[in-house]
Amino acid sequence: MDNKQNADVFDEEMRRKFDLMPGFDKDFQADPTPAFRKTDPHAMDNLTAGGQAGQTAGAASQTGVAEAQAATSQTADSLPVREKAEKSFGHRDFAAHDLPGYNRGPGIPYAFSNNPRAGQWDARKMSANRIASYKRFVVTDGEGIRNSIYVAGCPFRCQNCWNASIWDFQAGHDFTPAFEQAVIDDLRPSYVEGVTYLGGEPMLNTPVLLKISNHIRQEFGDTKNIWCWTGYTWEELMRPGTTPDKTALLGMCDILIDGRFIEGLKDSRLQFRGSSNQRVIDVKKSLAARREAQEQGLNPNCVAPVIWDKLHDQKRVIAEAYRKDRDAGEGRD
Ligand code: SF4
């Protein structure tokens, strides 16, 4: 089966399973451009920056996208990376109407990522309660030594997702009480800082993760922290209509790394993220800032999330930092 057939089967499967309308959401149905997305989620690979970026922008402009209109006059190759991604793929907010005064957060290119409406994707229907992978004592998935749970299933289908092999909600193994107990036992050593949820999409596997999170809080209180990587943006999770299980899981997390991975914004210098649209958010402080705004009679959706105060991105790429002739005095800045 070739890529296109695979994608067709995947789409059909998703529609059947989650009762979604063809095309997944009305934004895509109204927009002539994403036709290729419905047949090949990675068809953007074949697009070149110049003419086809213009074609994308032309279609997008029919829906009123001012940013995309300029793309016809300039090749994306000559632009800085963020601008290039926006112009190549057509940058727009799919749900500007969702919230007065705010949007979904950092730009989400529309040609290769799915953009669910609030509550459209529901873990209670979608999750198969499967664990794709579990890694103990890792140092890459957040601060300190941690145990990482990879849940199965992610419908965002970002181009060049690192974990595409577990997009399927059936990947991996059934979640069991024995697994839950093993997670708790592995958190006992004092040198383990906490647990990390990745995937797959944690917010679409809440039946499993809420159970584990509750157990962790009962057993360890706040002495162990919870980090979570999600394809949803913070603003998407804050929208009215978001399913309550997502809000509940978010409330149990300490740190949230939000947003789809966007290949055009990839940057290897970023700490804990793949692309520059993603953020490392301090959940407790962000929720407190929203409550404070509410108490002052302000719209909490106009309050930006609070970035983790220990964040430190690399300033230089590794090659710049290490491929130096030290004897010749290079790299001593
Ligand atoms: S949201 Fe994350 S797991 Fe899902 S497709 Fe995108 S990069 Fe992959």
Would you give an account of this structure?
This protein is an alpha/beta fold. It has 2 domains: about 5-90, no CATH class; about 125-300, no CATH class. It is about 35% helix and about 10% strand. The protein has a 7-stranded mixed β-sheet. The longest helix is centred in the N-terminal third of the chain and has 16 residues, at about 5-20. The protein is globular and about 60 Å long. Iron/sulfur cluster (SF4) binds near residues 200, 201 and 231.
* Structure classification: alpha/beta
Query: Order of helices and strands, N to C?
Result: HHHHHHHEEEHEHEHHEEHH
Bound molecules: iron/sulfur cluster
> Biggest sheet, strands in spatial order?
3-1-2-4-5-6-7
Q: Could you estimate the helical fraction of the residues in percent?
A: 25-40%
Radius of gyration: 21 Å
* Strand segment tally: 7
* Terminal-residue CA separation: 54 Å
- Summarize the biggest pleated sheet: 7 strands, mixed
Uncertain runs with pLDDT below 50, 5 residues or more?
17-74, 89-96
State which percent range the strand residues make up: 5-15%
Concise overview:
The chain has 333 residues and is of the alpha/beta class. The protein has helices at residues 3-18, 26-30, 35-39, 51-61, 66-69, 81-89, 123-126, 177-186, 206-220, 234-238, 244-252, 283-295, 318-322, and strands at 130-138, 145-151, 173-174, 192-198, 225-229, 255-258, 279-282. The protein has a 7-stranded mixed beta sheet with strand order 3-1-2-4-5-6-7.
